């Protein structure tokens, strides 16, 4: 799935030592489309959830050439009467614009496919986030529509609903 021009991104399972990355990503710039920076207590809770998320999803540290460039994951989410995978990512500012998020999204789709639990992976970037919407398009997601979503709790905003069909992509790959 990764073309020769894509960066050689790898996904490393989230570990106890990755808390620093949450702190680096908790800036006004990186959380502009997520309701703003979180409190220190919320970061600790998020880190704990990431560490415990091992059977119904995963969170990873993205690396390129041995350097940590961001994080990505997938987890279960109730959506429109069913359970789907949801994905989300954050690439550190100094590494943005290099295709790292697209390469990592493709890798996380492969990881979600191996779970064989849910057919669809959804991403919900805000409609005003051109970078994340471009990642969805370039990684092969299909735009379903848009919705008002509450994230974080108490903060409503308009988001696009991008969907990736793991079964259709697997079937297409088998036919090729």
From TrEMBL:
<keyword id="KW-0808">Transferase</keyword>
<dbReference type="InterPro" id="IPR051531">
    <property type="entry name" value="N-acetyltransferase"/>
</dbReference>
<protein>
    <submittedName>
        <fullName>GNAT family N-acetyltransferase</fullName>
        <ecNumber>2.3.-.-</ecNumber>
    </submittedName>
</protein>
<dbReference type="Pfam" id="PF13302">
    <property type="entry name" value="Acetyltransf_3"/>
</dbReference>
<dbReference type="InterPro" id="IPR016181">
    <property type="entry name" value="Acyl_CoA_acyltransferase"/>
</dbReference>
<dbReference type="GO" id="GO:0016746">
    <property type="term" value="F:acyltransferase activity"/>
</dbReference>
<dbReference type="InterPro" id="IPR000182">
    <property type="entry name" value="GNAT_dom"/>
</dbReference>
<comment type="similarity">
    <text>Belongs to the acetyltransferase family. RimJ subfamily.</text>
</comment>
<feature type="domain" description="N-acetyltransferase">
    <location>
        <begin position="9"/>
        <end position="167"/>
    </location>
</feature>
<keyword id="KW-0012">Acyltransferase</keyword>
């Amino acid at each position: 799935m990764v073309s020769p021009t894509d960066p050689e991104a790898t996904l490393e399972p989230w570990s106890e030592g990755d808390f620093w990355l949450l702190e680096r990503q908790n800036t006004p710039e990186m959380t502009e489309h997520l309701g703003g920076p979180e409190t220190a207590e919320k970061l600790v809770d998020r880190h704990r959830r990431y560490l415990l998320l091992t059977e119904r999803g995963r969170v990873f540290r993205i690396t390129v050439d041995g350097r940590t460039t961001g994080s990505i994951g997938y987890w279960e989410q109730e959506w429109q009467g069913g359970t789907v995978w949801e994905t989300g990512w954050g690439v550190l500012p100094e590494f943005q614009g290099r295709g790292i998020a697209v390469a990592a999204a493709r890798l996380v789709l492969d990881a979600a496919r191996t779970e064989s639990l849910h057919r669809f992976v959804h991403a919900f970037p805000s409609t005003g986030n051109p970078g994340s919407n471009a990642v969805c398009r370039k990684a092969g997601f299909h735009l379903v529509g848009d919705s008002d979503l509450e994230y974080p709790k108490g903060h409503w905003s308009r988001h696009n609903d991008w969907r990736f069909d793991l079964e259709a992509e697997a079937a297409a790959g088998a036919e090729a």
